[in-house]
């Protein structure tokens, strides 16, 4: 494959967004201002920014700053390590305003395919150049000129189109799978609310319990009515809670073995409900050197140091570092119920955190945390119903991990010309 050398400025243009006055920031309105929070840089895609509540803009702005569906954007400010060089695609026209921290990429279509450009900007080659040229301040910045000055080698336009089409097809499948899993999770949360917050689980006749006159009793501890046959327990009554730990030294003999070892980063990076592998394993030597526990499948994991409240369900044996509290059911079908119960009450659990350098929730406080325990038959029925959703979620999650790995392995090879796309394959 023949590659031609260019400066990015020869094949695309880069424009900076508008300087938007803070006096016109609002909590509601017609237009949303784009920020660096709209870049999911771990998945290299667009995300809705939920970190702030004043993202709407009600002031005047020039029409050219109103984004169109399909526009490619990249950040000019590195508010998180690895953000520079990320790309995202605007999902809807007439909604988002390009702000000064966000650049728009405009391809010269006779030289550069738009889909190919999306991956070219986020390639390691360009990211390394942007990182090296970034201003060394507390928060690093780049600029349209620095982006234009990056050197790249690209194939002819027909090959670009084939490469871009292949990579976009993989990303669209990943996005579709992610949306399906979000819908499945929303269904599970809705069912949890209906059964365990509104108490309309099926009664003996299969009808909603509370709505059909099911007996309710006042509970002083929860300060609300609960079903008559249900109990208030503490966490210690229903699960064993374990702290995690880290090998006692940094010796490499402690790592690289067969024991899956999870850190909060594995959850925060993936944002996944199920965890069965982490970034790093530990060896038997490492495991023996610390006081962690080997946890069985269906253990509920909760990050107990800042950030407190990341939750996952283990799907095979593993152990964790000291950033976790792990909940191993003592008996019965309570793991999935406990996962949603902790999620529903996570704000209360966060309030138990103490510490100056960073907040942490102690094992002792977790053990005393109250838990509403449904009757065993309802727990069994809940487990049966939600397990069907969980199994599908896990299947989709694994498929997405394989697709992401395939895309990430292909990307540098396609970009540097080591492999090419078969024309028949690109037409599928």
Task: Provide keyphrases for this structure.
34% helix, 5-stranded mixed sheet, Adenine-n6-DNA-methyltransferase TaqI, Chain A, domain 2, 3 domains, alpha+beta, globular, 4-stranded antiparallel sheet, 26 strands, 428 residues
Describe the structure.
The structure is a single chain. The chain is 34% helix and 21% strand. The chain is α+β, with helices and mostly antiparallel strands. A 5-stranded mixed sheet has the order 18-25-22-23-20, with helices on both faces. Strands 2-12-8-10 form a 4-stranded antiparallel sheet. Strands 3-7-4-11 form a 4-stranded mixed sheet, with no helix packed on it.
CATH topology of the largest domain: Adenine-n6-DNA-methyltransferase TaqI, Chain A, domain 2
> Biggest β-sheet, characterized?
5 strands, mixed
- Give the helix level as a range of percent: 25-40%
Report the mean per-residue pLDDT as an integer.
Answer: 91
Major beta sheet, strand line-up: 18-25-22-23-20
Overall morphology:
globular
Structurally, how many domains make up the residues? 3
The portion of residues forming beta strands comes to: 15-25%
What is the count of DSSP helices, taking H or I runs of 4+ residues?
Answer: 13
Structural class: alpha+beta
CA radius of gyration: 25 Å
Name of the CATH class of the largest domain: Alpha Beta
Specify the CATH architecture of the largest domain: Alpha-Beta Complex
- Total strands: 26
């Amino acid at each position: 494959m023949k590659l031609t050398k260019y400066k990015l400025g020869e094949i695309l243009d880069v424009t900076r967004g508008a300087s938007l006055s803070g006096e016109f920031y609002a909590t509601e309105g017609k237009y949303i201002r784009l920020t660096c929070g709209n870049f999911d840089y771990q998945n290299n895609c667009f995300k809705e920014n939920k970190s702030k509540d004043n993202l709407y803009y009600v002031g005047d702005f020039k029409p050219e700053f109103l984004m169109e569906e399909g526009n490619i954007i990249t950040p000019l400010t590195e508010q998180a390590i690895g953000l520079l060089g990320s790309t995202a695609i605007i999902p809807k026209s007439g909604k988002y305003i390009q702000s000064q921290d966000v650049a728009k990429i405009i391809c010269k279509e006779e030289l550069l395919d738009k889909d190919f450009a999306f991956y070219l900007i986020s390639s390691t080659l360009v990211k390394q150049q942007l990182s090296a040229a970034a201003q060394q301040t507390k928060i690093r910045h780049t600029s349209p000129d620095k982006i234009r000055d990056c050197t790249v080698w690209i194939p002819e336009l027909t090959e670009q189109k084939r490469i871009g089409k292949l990579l976009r097809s993989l990303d669209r499948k990943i996005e579709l799978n992610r949306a399906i899993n979000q819908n499945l999770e929303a269904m599970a949360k809705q069912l949890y609310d209906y059964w365990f917050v509104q108490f309309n689980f099926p009664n003996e006749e299969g009808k909603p319990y509370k709505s059909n006159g099911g007996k309710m009793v006042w509970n002083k501890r929860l300060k609300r009515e609960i079903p008559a046959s249900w109990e208030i327990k503490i966490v210690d009554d229903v699960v064993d809670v374990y702290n995690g730990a880290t090998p006692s030294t940094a010796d490499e003999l402690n790592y690289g073995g067969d024991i899956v070892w999870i850190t909060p980063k594995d959850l925060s990076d993936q944002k996944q409900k199920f965890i069965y592998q982490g970034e790093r394993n530990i060896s038997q030597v490492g495991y023996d050197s610390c006081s962690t526990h080997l946890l069985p499948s269906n253990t509920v994991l909760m990050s107990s140091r800042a950030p407190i409240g990341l939750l996952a369900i283990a799907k095979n044996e593993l152990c964790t570092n000291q950033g976790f509290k792990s909940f191993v059911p003592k008996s019965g079908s309570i793991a999935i119920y406990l996962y949603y119960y902790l999620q529903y009450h996570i704000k209360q659990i966060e309030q138990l955190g103490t510490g100056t350098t960073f907040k942490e929730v102690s094992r002792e406080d977790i053990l005393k945390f109250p838990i509403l325990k449904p009757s065993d038959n309802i727990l069994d029925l809940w487990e049966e119903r939600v397990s069907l959703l969980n199994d599908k979620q896990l299947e989709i999650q694994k498929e997405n991990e394989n697709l992401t790995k395939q895309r990430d392995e292909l990307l540098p090879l396609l970009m540097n010309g080591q492999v090419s796309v078969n024309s028949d394959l690109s037409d599928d």
